[in-house]
Amino acid sequence: MSRLIVVSNRVPLPDKHGTAPTGGLAVALQAALNERGGIWLGWSGKSTRDDDPGPLQVIDKGNIQYLLTDLTERDLEEYYQGFANRVLWPICHYRLDLAEYARKEMAGYFRVNRFFAERLAPMLRPDDVLWIHDYHLIPLAAELRKLGIANRIGFFLHIPWPVPDVLFAMPVYETILKCLSSYDLIGFQTNNDRRNFADGLLRHAWATAKSDTEFEVDGRAFQARAFPIGIETSEFMSFARKAAGTGVARRMHQSLDGKKLILGVDRLDYSKGITQRIDAFEKFLTRHPDRERNVTFLQITPKSRSEVPEYEAMQRAVAEQAGRVNGAMGTIDWVPIRYVNRSLSRPALAGLYRMAKVALVTPLRDGMNLVAKEFVAAQTEEDPGVLVLSRFAGAAEELDAALLVNPYDVEGTAEAIRRGLDMALEERQERWRAMLGKLKSNDVFSWSHNFLTSLETQ
Fold first, then answer.
1. Are residues 40 and 145 in the same domain?
2. CB atoms < 10 A from the CB of 13, how many?
3. DSSP string, 123-160
4. Are residues 149 and 263 in the same domain?
5. What is the pLDDT of residues 313-329, one digit of tens each?
């Protein structure tokens, strides 16, 4: 069996005991690497003021060799904070108003991808299979091809891919599309993302379609397919059963004092629809004053990319909005919204998922959203909670038994909250079983296996 070479912007290292990090993606890739042997290359998370980032850091753990590289501060500013997160991220999430294109940052993005390629190429064997992850590294295959690497190379995009007219607002969109054609297989989260990619690609005379999933650019054939990422479903179900007895879960249950818990869990990002969600909860309380003091909305929102000004401003805006609702609607002994601006452990989150009567997963745009899947997996068959899910999350393509909402429709989302709280047990169980069945049939290990099998056998 050929080695697997994984490249991602960041590398989740095992602890000193060799235990793999938590989280479905890391678990699945660690399992594939352990089985086949291989390399995981990525940024160390450190930067230097020197022009030379220094040698690779090599960490050997069993069959896996972790290769970490520092970046210069200039590289970090232009590649990561710049083009990746101030151009590609907002455009892929349909936020043209937040995209700030600069030629210098675009050049830095390609320069760092060339740097990654130059560090990786000498490590490769002719039969290695490469799997590149996410929007930070779109040009990596093209840079490797320039160095003579002919190996099978796959790419998986974890975020959405926009419709052509949004993509074409990016000045270098043609270059990005041609870079993607250097891969042998491109994986998207949903069929909708794959169709958006195909529609954009085929508007050009230099691209042709051989089928719905196979394309040709400059005489080179490649495939683009949907591979919706899952979670470690069975493991997470067991995890949630145990987590129900954690200290956080017990304290939360005691503090609710019989109130129904409505839960939101999101990284702080403008794509997550947090402000619209708070508006919807406020609208729900306004429409149903009898529910006051009977529900509590807990929004857990760890900080994200605090070095980017837009995220600092959003952090302030969300905190102020939650404070305004609490000030206007709260009482001495009841706070409508509990806003937690820090990370919680997976056991703590699993216990909260299991306790919640309604989960609000209402991003304005999301590649997949694994919170939705974790919430479903955490429920009990005897009394499952209700998932209120944005139509614009990739998870909606699979979890269509959730209450699907348009997050821009505040009144519609408010009504979904009411419906979720009042839903009969039989309907809740029926919806939960339908969603859980899909989570079991397409867990994260199936996702990894299906992608790699397609990459090696197409």
1. yes
2. 17
3. G--TT-EEEEESGGGTTHHHHHHHTT--SEEEEE--S-
4. no
5. 888 899 999 999 999 99
Give the domain CATH number at 360.
3.40.50.2000
Q: Which residues have a catalytic role annotated?
A: 158, 366
Which range (22-26, 75-79, 131-135, 257-261) has the least confidence? 22-26
Residues in contact with 127: Cβ distance below 8 Å, sequence separation at least 6, in sequence order: 2, 3, 151
Task: For residue 241, give the amino acid letter.
Answer: R
Clarify whether residues 190 and 289 are in a common domain. Answer: no
pLDDT of residue 60: 93
pLDDT tens readout for residues 47-60: 998 888 999 999 99
Say whether both 323 and 340 belong to one domain.
yes
The answer to whether 413 and 405 have CB atoms below 8 angstroms apart is: yes
Rounded Cα–Cα distance for residues 371 and 360 (Å): 10
Q: Are residues 56 and 144 in the same domain?
A: yes
DSSP assignment letter at 218: T
Q: How far apart are CA 144 and CA 118, in angstroms?
A: 8
What sign for the dihedral angle of Cα 393, 396, 399, 404? Answer: positive
Strand arrangement, sheet containing 260-265: 337-340, 295-300, 260-265, 358-361, 386-390, 403-405
Assessment of whether the complete model's pTM goes beyond 0.90: yes
Q: How many domains does the chain have?
A: 2
For residue 106, with 0-12 CB atoms within 10 Å meaning exposed, 13-18 middle and 19 or more buried, which class applies?
buried
Nearest to 399 by CA among 442, 352, 447, 356: 442
At residue 87, the 3 state secondary structure works out as helix
Strands (E), 148-197: 152-156, 185-188
Residues in the chain: 458
CA atoms within 13 A on the CB side of 89: 19
Structure-token match 């793999």, residue found: 20
Residues 287 and 342 in one domain: yes
CB 57 within 8 A of CB 67: yes
Q: Which 3 state secondary structure label does DSSP give 393?
A: strand
Shared-domain flag, residues 159 and 286: no
- Structural domain that includes position 398: 233-441
